[in-house]
Amino acid sequence: MNAAALRRILAQPGQALVALAVALFLAAFLIIPVITVMIAAFQPKGGSGFTLVNFADFFATDLFRRSFFNSLYVSAMSVAVATVLALPLAYFTTRFDFRGAVIVQTLGVIPLIMPPFAGAVAMQLLFGRNGTVNLLLDEAFGFKIGFMEGLNGVIFVEALHYFPLILINLSTALRNIDRAMEEAAQNLGCSGFRLFRRIVFPLAMPGYVAGASLVFIKVFDDLATPLLLNVKDLLAPQAYLRITSVGLADPMGYVISVVLIVASLIAMYLSLLALRGKDYATVQRGGGGLAKRPLGRGDAILAYGTILIVLVLTLAPHLGLLLLSFATIWSFSPLPDGFTLAHYVQVFSDSGQYIVNTVLYAGLAALIDVVVGTAIAYLVLRVGVPGAKWLDYAATAALAVPGVVLGIGYLRTYFGVTLPSGQSLAAFWGMIVLALAIRRLPLALRACTAALQQVAASLEEAAENLGATKARTVRRIVLPLMTGGLAAGFVTSFATAAVELSATMMLVQSSADAPLAYGLYVFMQSPAGRGAGAALGVIAVLIVGVCTYISNRIVDGDMAAKAGAH
Amino acid sequence: MSFTRRIVCAAAIVMPLAAAAQAPSGKLTVVTSFSKEVTGPFKAAFEKAYPGTTLDVQNRNTNAGVKFIEETKSNNGVDLFWASAPDAFEVLKGKGLLEAYKAKAEGVPDKIGQYPIHDPEGFYTGFAISGYGIMWNTRYVGAQKLPEPKEWQDLATAPYFDHVSMAAPSRSGTTHLTIEAILQTAGWEKGWGIVKAFSGNLRAVTDRSFGVPDAVNSGQVGYGIVIDFFGFSAQGAGFPVKFVYPSLSTIVPANIAVVKNAPNAAAAKAFVDFILSEPGQAVLFDPKIRRLPVRTASYDKAPDGLPNPFKFPWVANAKFDVDKSEKRFQPVDALFDQLITFQHEPLKAATKAIHEADAAIAKKPNAEASKLVAEARALIAAMPVNEAEAASAEITGAFTGGSGKEKAPRQAELEQKWAAFAKEKYAAALAKAEAALKAAR
Predict the structure, then answer these.
(1) CB-closest option in B2, B59, B416 to A429
(2) What angle is formed at CA A403 by the lines to CA A398 and CA A406, rounded to 5 degrees?
(3) Are A496 and A503 in contact (CB under 8 A)?
(4) CB–CB of A512 and B29 under 8 A?
(5) Least packed by Cβ within 10 Å: which of A45, A403, B208, B437?
(6) Which residues from chain A sit within 8 angstroms of residue B1, using beta carbons?
(7) Which among A129, A328, A528 is the nearest to B37, CB-wise?
(8) Which CATH code for domain B131-250+323-440?
(9) How many CB atoms lie under 10 A from the CB of residue A290?
């Protein structure tokens, strides 16, 4: 470390302390547990010492090479399809005086919280080879469509599942655009699609790139969807299958995990490159985003039509889930044989703890994510603490760590540590919260970074020139201006943590401490439990939906208040 | 929230230890692969029979359960391990993680056919019997006018193409046993021939055992290769499905074992006794469970439609050599994955071409075409390793690692070799079948 850097640190001991705290947090709950497991990738099987022969084997195996290219293709195509779905929803709701914009924004987030297994079963019942749509098509026209077949099926489901990541980040960015920019363009005679293409969309670029890169990485690392569609020639399912079926001692699973992590970091780096050298910050606040216009009749038909189509498509799995939760028997028929309330009665009578635990765990995890995410974003964008970038990379790498690996890492690292009660630390429910927080941190971090990128540093400088301390500036100026982005981060973390299963599965030590996704998994393992599982899934969707709606209301209220004060 | 509850629980476990000799009480922690439908009625019946006990059920799939007990042995909090696959118990026993306990039970024979119901050394106890077979959705089969199967070989015929589903043996302990049973009863070469022939008709190879009955129940596929209780419990829940045992099946017990250093060993042993007692065995007849008891007298009260496996004619001859199975456990899984799961598209293409050629030959017999089809079938059935090689130290060593030999092949190398072998043979089979179709036209 050179003298200048040292002086910078000494000048701001508070920031160095924050950086140190974040680094310790990441080291203790991400890096060390993962390394204790991943080290196997660099060792000969069943032996010790360092070797790269496993990586040579990776590239010598047809299956792994094929999986690698399939993963790239599926991820890129999913980003393209997700953009097509997200763009109209984000644009119409932020651009026009739109009745029910909050509802559209909320419903748009719902696909993200498709609980594993339940969502899968519902999708098959609707779009599968003998699902509702195909049975009706076959009866009426004598043909079927393979929605859920092969790589295209994966792209279809992934795009429906993850497009909200683009929607949330893009909407937030659009709301934060300075109206003056748009007005200036209009004064110079620019309007219509050209205005959108040349002014609005480029200004919202940080939000779009944040969302798109998240979709790419999530799809690249997702294993639940391909597995439920029985597509195994992708990298993430290969890693999962290796680790969980060949065994912990097999190095290839970890080799694939290392490849996943490296590929995700490269994708992240490329998205940073795309934004480099451009300044997206706006000085003036309170413009309240784009000028809201009333919809003309033609525009209205177009807007509502587009939104209706997208919403019907994206909410279909949830409709299926809802039907299943009321169904008696649903087998090889367009609709269930009969309807009943029995599944809900069953869930409420013996599964109440799942619901309480889920709200608590996901809420705490999302809170941790927003705090740590903001800290990292601030350190990276505003403060010259050496190595701050590495905190960003490390946190982002969590995206690519398979949940199973993280769960096993926690058990290995913390099982020997006992709490005063005599209980093992790894068995404490707080560990589930930490695992969820680490798994969802990258989502919150991108949202926080995008939010901070749109706040001009000159506002902070002004505050400091007026004598405010750094801490006070952050509290009074930066955080309030970031509210929208922080809420977006909280919602994404909360919503996805509420349905996370893979890491939880390893860490749940008692059914009294289990979250909802685990209860769902337990129910879905038996023919009679399918309805009850679906009922639990519907409850999960409702909980997250309500929380999202509330936070969207807060953001909107906040915007309105700012605009009013202006 | 549950933190205080935990302290209370911990206290509840510590205090009655002195009194444990008289009556079991306190929290009993069970790690199981069984669903809530199975564990729920047992929990209710046991807690009623032993007031003061609570059964805490942790649901994990078999592999995850084994790993969990292994990773947490330094501070073990699990009393019982309860699952189907005997192999999983063998693994735990081999690592010294189980405690020997001989259940106090009457009317439970030592063996069914040639298969011991309990571990001869007493480390785990069989409590229910499972057989393997084929389940199908009667609505699906009725709507598409498909046949009802009797044997594994039926699944290999043309009408079943693209209608069958099964789990990968590497992913499902029960499917592994099914494959191993076919290999042991029919022999290595012929057995793999049967397996590959019906695998060419598979709609999909799923990665979890429950995916198969789920797909059959909901009508996504017509037929599934499953353990019997998936079929019976789906019937019990009201789904339009049927189940049949093929004659090349095997019967294997599902087990329970006391974990070493169990925090509440007294209650754990009481639970094992309870599950083998008359009231415990009767719980197996619950319509949502529908498993076959090990206590022979229990069958007097069996519900309609549930068979008595002790009376199956083929059970006396059903062979199952556990040692043989254990020795080649991983090579068999890897062979299935490399030859079938990850080469499914070319296998399916070749199988489809063979069905088409067969249909053409049936219309217009042609000796040359028949010969080509037979060659195509032989190409599909071909194996990269024979029975002795699969169990050889060289190959099994590649899977366990640490052989220490410089020249020994690595698992990834073997797998790539096998995959390349399968790819080449299936492509050749496709070419032969296409040539046969041309000749027959």
Answers:
(1) B2
(2) 70
(3) no
(4) no
(5) B208
(6) 356-357, 360, 429
(7) A528
(8) 3.40.190.10
(9) 25
Query: What three-state secondary structure class fits B224?
Result: strand
Give the residue on A whose Cα is nearest the Cα of B206: A230
| pLDDT tens digits along A221-244 | 877 778 777 888 898 888 878 877
Q: Give B236 to chain A, closest Cα distance, Å.
A: 8
Structure tokens at B13: 């476990």
Left if phi > 0, otherwise alpha if psi is -120 to 50, otherwise beta: which for A24?
Answer: alpha
Cross-chain Cβ contact B240/A331 below 8 Å: yes
Residue intervals in chain B for CATH 3.40.190.10: 2-130+252-311, 131-250+323-440
Taking only the tens place, the pLDDT of each residue in A139-182 is 888 888 888 888 988 898 888 888 888 988 888 888 777 777 77
Own/partner pairs for A350-353, CB < 8 Å, 24+ apart? A351/A519, A351/A532, A351/A536, A353/A511, A353/A512, A353/A514, A353/B2
Can you tell me whether residue B223 is helix, strand or coil? Answer: strand
Nearest-Cα distance to chain B for A287, in Å, is 44
In the numeric block, the tokens 């008696």 are attached to: A328
**Measured between CB atoms, which of B139, B171, B420 is closest to A245?**
B171
Domains detected in chain A? 13-37+79-220+280-565 (1.10.3720.10)
Q: Which of B207, B329, B336 to mutate to test the interface with A (most CBs of A within 10 A)?
A: B207
Residues 6+ apart with CB under 8 A from A223: A234, A236, A237, A239, A240, A402, A502
Q: What is the pTM of this model?
A: 0.81
Min Cα–Cα distance to chain A from B180, Å: 17
Cross-chain residue pair B64–A244, CB shorter than 8 Å: yes
Report the C-alpha gap between B356 and B435 in whole angstroms. Answer: 11
pLDDT in tens, A183-202: 888 888 887 778 877 888 78
Strand segments, DSSP code E, in B260-398 are: 292-293
Indicate yes or no: CB of B58 within 8 angstroms of CB of A412. Answer: no
CA distance B277 to A28: 49
Distances (CA, A) of B3 to A208, A353, A421, A427, B58: 42, 13, 10, 11, 18
- Using one digit for the tens of pLDDT, what is the confidence trace for B37-90? 889 999 999 999 999 999 998 888 777 788 888 888 888 889 999 988 787 898
From A331, A418, A521, residue closest to B139, measured CB to CB: A331
The pLDDT score that the predictor gives to residue B382 is 95
Rounded CA-CA distance A322/A332 in Å is: 18
- CA B149, distance to chain mean position in Å, is 20
Q: Which of B3, B15, B29, B218 to mutate to test the interface with A (most CBs of A within 10 A)?
A: B218
Contact assignment for B401 to A522 by CB distance below 8 Å:
no
What is the C-alpha radius of gyration for chain B, rounded to an integer number of angstroms?
24
Say which CATH topology domain B2-130+252-311 has: D-Maltodextrin-Binding Protein; domain 2 (3.40.190)
Sort B116 into a burial class: Cβ within 10 Å, 0-12 / 13-18 / 19+.
middle
How many C-beta atoms lie closer than 10 Å to residue B362's C-beta?
10
Q: Identify all chain B residues contacting A61, using CB atoms and an 8 Å cutoff.
A: 412, 415-416, 419
pLDDT, tens digit, 9 for 90 and up, residues A288-335: 566 677 777 877 888 888 888 888 888 888 888 999 999 988 888 888
Using CA atoms, how far apart are residues A104 and A86, in angstroms rounded to an integer? 11
ipTM of this model? Answer: 0.77
Report the residue of chain A nearest B203, measured CA to CA: A230
Q: What integer pLDDT is reported at residue A555 of this predicted model?
A: 67
Three-state secondary structure call for residue A318: helix
Residue for token pair 């695998």: B199
Structural contact between residues A157 and A78, judged by C-beta atoms closer than 8 angstroms: no
pLDDT-derived band at A565 (thresholds 50, 70, 90) equals very low
